[in-house]
Amino acid sequence: MSGAHRGVVVDSPPGAGKSTLVVRAALELADAGRPLMVVAQTNAQVDDLVLRLHEKRPDLPVGRLHSSDADAYDRALESLDNVLLSDKAPALAGLPVVISTAAKWGHVKPSDAHWEQAIVDEAYQMRSDALLTVAGLFDRALFVGDPGQLDPFSVVGAEQWAGLSYDPSASAVTTLLAHNPGLPQHRLPVSWRLPASAAPLVSDAFYPYTPFRAGTGPDDRRLAFGVPSDGSGPDRVIDEAAVSGWGLLEL
Fold it and tell me: Which of 15, 5, 42, 25 minimizes the C-alpha distance to 146?
């Protein structure tokens, strides 16, 4: 994030380490004295990132920007030292890391707060119009996401923009790359979540342009049971799944 480009895209399949990358990148930037904002897509994702950062570096001041709703954040954050909560961005602007949802960041004015660096987590879940709303808050950004996810949805019809480079129903990454084709793109090509029996199937079906492989071999994981099957339909399906990696139960 220190090169000539204003953005970097990292594609990551399930279980390849998206959250680990986001947390490590945030810590590296904070340790280098480069304050940053982090954009996530849901309150649950924001709270999880705050907890992960606090677990790694309890001494690092982290800001959690939230809405004024009663249940805007996990109340467990209130007991964490060095985690500051506020519904006003200027109150948190001096902290090394400030995290919030794209929806909340959309209400922040560039004149109120601005960052040199930003990280957009789950960037393929973010609509392009949401990125346009927050783009004035930062100079450079790291976009991390899963390209195999479904495109973001919109409650408003967007047929008139279909196929255009500024289609608001497209993901933030799709629109970003359409307007900036020269941005560096990297991949995390190994999934540690999917076993060797499932990774090729999922990769071929949903990741034709960003294939990945399993981080474990065919014999690295086994499913065994402490008691024998009772012979019922569900148990026979479970036995089949343990042997072949999948099973079908007709209800």
Answer: 15
Task: Give the list of residues 6+ apart from residue 113 with CB closer than 8 angstroms, or none.
Answer: 37, 89, 90, 92, 93, 137
CA 56 to chain centre: 18
Question: CATH number of the domain at 7-188, please?
Answer: 3.40.50.300
The 10s digit of each residue's pLDDT in 169-217 is 788 999 999 899 999 999 999 999 998 988 999 999 999 999 999 999 9
The single residue listed with the structure tokens 């907890």 is 51
pTM of the model: 0.84
Determine contact, residues 144/10, Cβ cutoff 8 Å.
yes
- Rounded to whole angstroms, how far apart are CA atoms 121 and 39? 6
> CA separation (Å) from 1 to 131, 139, 183, 208?
18, 10, 11, 27
Show the tokens assigned to 16: 């390849």
For residue 186, give the nearest of 213, 147, 151 by alpha carbon.
147
Please check whether residue 74 is in contact with residue 99, taking contact to mean a CB–CB distance below 8 angstroms: no
pLDDT one-digit tens code per residue, 88-109: 999 999 999 999 999 999 999 9
Q: Which two tokens stand for residue 52?
A: 């992960």
Domain boundaries, the chain: 7-188, 221-251
Q: Are 83 and 59 in contact (CB under 8 A)?
A: no
Separation of CA 141 from chain center: 14
Single-letter code of the amino acid located at 66: H
**Residue 222 CB contacts under 8 Å (≥ 6 apart), including other chains:** none
Sequence-ordered alpha helix ranges (H) in the chain: 18-31, 43-56, 102-105, 128-134, 172-179, 199-206, 233-244
